Amino acid sequence: MIKSGEDSEVMAYFPDLKKKFDKFKSYYYELQGHLEIFWEFFPLDIKTVSRKEFALHVTHSYIHEIQGFFFAMLDGKVKNSKEWLLNLNNKTILSIFKSWNNTKEQ
User: Fold this and answer.
1) Which of 61, 96, 102, 101 is nearest to 81 (CA)?
2) Residue 106's pLDDT is what?
3) What is the pLDDT of residues 5-21, one digit of tens each?
4) Which of 19, 22, 53, 84 could form a disulfide with 78 if both were Cys (CB 3.0 to 4.6 A apart)?
5) 72 and 7 in contact (C-beta within 8 Å)?
6) Residues 38, 46: contact at Cβ < 8 Å?
């Protein structure tokens, strides 16, 4: 529902889920924004860096669950974080939320 933007109709039928849903929706858009910022300010020159150097930086700098985003961007498989997130299944997104929350609490 978050990915498709069709949440208002569902929330009309299940208002008791709104608080929890809004929390996940907030995480989703926060993650999307952070990924865009991470990519925009990526510290290596994408045009000249070797794939090995790129991989070393990504694997040492970002949680495992979002590393695929950087490779998808590098390889031109997606145009932005929104597209990358749309291609993920819900289980993977929930796993990212869990890891993301754990790193924010540390």
Assistant:
1) 96
2) 53
3) 666 776 677 788 888 88
4) 84
5) no
6) no
In this predicted structure, the answer to whether residue 100 has a pLDDT above a threshold of 80 is: no
Domain boundary assignment for the chain: 7-105
- Report the pLDDT value the prediction gives residue 12, as an integer from 0 to 100: 75
| pTM of the model as a whole | 0.82
* DSSP string of the chain, one letter each residue: -TTTT-HHHHHHH-GGGHHHHHHHHHHHHHHHHHHHHHHHT-SS-TTTS-HHHHHHHHHHHS-GGGHHHHHHHHTTS-SSHHHHHHHS-HHHHHHHHHHHHHHHH-
Q: How far is CA 41 from the centre of its chain?
A: 16
- What are the backbone dihedrals phi and psi of residue 64, each rounded to the nearest 5 degrees, phi first? -50, -40
The contacts of residue 63 (CB under 8 Å, 6+ apart) are 96, 99, 100, 103
Residue 27: which of 106, 103, 83, 98 has the closest Cα? 98
